[in-house]
Amino acid sequence: MIMKKQILLPLFGMALLSTSCGDSFLNVAPADQLSDATYWKTEADAASALTGCYNGWETITNIVFLDAATDNGYEQFNYLYQPIGNGQLLPTSSTGYEAPWVDGSATRWFTYDRIRKYNNFLEKIDGVEMDETTKERYKAEVRFLRAYDYYNKVMFYGDIPLVTSVISDAEEAKMTRTPAAEVTEFVLKELTEVAAVLPTQNQVQSGGHITKGAALALKSRFELYLGNYEAAQADAATVIGMGCYELYPDYETLFYPSAKNANKESILDVQYMKDHYASMIPQLNLPAIEGGWSALNALWPFIDAAQMSNGKFKDEEGSGYDDNRPFDNRDPRLTAIVLCPGQPYNGRIYNPLDKTINGNNNDDYHVNAAASRGGLLIKKFIYPMSIDDANNYDANGMVIRLAEVYITFAECALQTGKDKDKALGYLNLIRQRAGMPAADILTDQLVKYERRMELAFEGLRYFDLKRWDLGPSVLNGPARGSRDGSVNSQTGEVTWNGDYIVLEERTFIPERKYLLPIPQNELDRNENMKQNNGY
What we know:
The protein is 39% helix and 10% strand. By secondary structure, the chain is α+β, with helices and mostly antiparallel strands. Helix 9 (180-195) packs antiparallel against helix 11 and helix 11 runs antiparallel to helix 12 (229-240).
């Protein structure tokens, strides 16, 4: 478990590689040169610096909350993704916004502080006397982290400056935007090359280090988004064929700390440790009665999308759907993901619909400050716990897992016509794990369903809407939560009044092409930087 041990090393290397760059354009000023001259000497220095590169490379909150910019969800405190989903994010609103639980600001993927430290690492490590095999692996890991960062940059912003060396001159840093196609080519090439160096291991075996499977799985994801189905399917097949990954037996507990030492499904994850590098996802998403902030909510279209437990969609003949009992007899993943009105939770009945319960104020009532605004609270990733534990949470945050690779393979099989029976088998493994009946035929509807339900709130839906161009139909108009009504706190039976709780009005702006704005302060500092359309 090398990575976990390295987190406990002295943080000199981490500080060296992650110092603030103030207002300098693109955050590309090099690390302190005097420290570099005395620091990059031994293999231990390189290992500590590698830990610094892993520090902050991704956070689970950025992944989980991205679905709040889609028809799956809504986040009530306007941390970051709400204004993306409702069309209100502006160049000026994406600067200086601080929310530590979502990693600082809406400019997360535009900033270059991580790119700077990756480039600095790659330039300095060649001068270190150390085992050459270890050195090449370290370099491959950091090249992956840089490729991952550029993957996100090009997905969120399109054309983006491509910086592959440390820049020390402020004028030199006033770069133009590199065409997205060139950045894309760079990312795919880097992932191909590092995959040839990295070991074939799952995340338990690697102790959190980047592996060959991570490189090829990210490459497959990117190729899918680009519509390069042949390549995406081939890379997915390679990952599946490695033999070191397998589905975790239980969907709900897959995301809990109890799974971390036996989770062979994870291909790429953010490693968390109590007291040293913890997550606060539970504090964000626990119900108000448990001391949480109920930050992330599901929207009613996600509830509507869930199949019935018999494998039929709710509007199909013979589905058995009851409009008065909308959460009953659904895909078990629905209530593993969403805490719904009337559902048992922590020894009580969850009730976000009544102002009082037995004459006492109800903290979970949906209009209260820390309550779920729409009554459909995301419980994926969390379970009842103390507030201390909620702020010191150590479940690893999965970025890519085997189920996604199975679904990618299946979608590509529909496009290429290759191995469709094998693809259906992969989907049925996922459905079997969830407690759903096997599907008889591979269809586009089935693949899209599994992608949405299985991978809900794992950071993929926004880019799926983008590639299928569903924004005009699903990101316009009112964002609806649960129907309003009253909950019997003894039986859980809900009496509905027919009206849906409207959380906000959304406006989709097609000219933006799903891209985020270049921050205004970057435009002000660099006359060569141009804004994306629609802002």
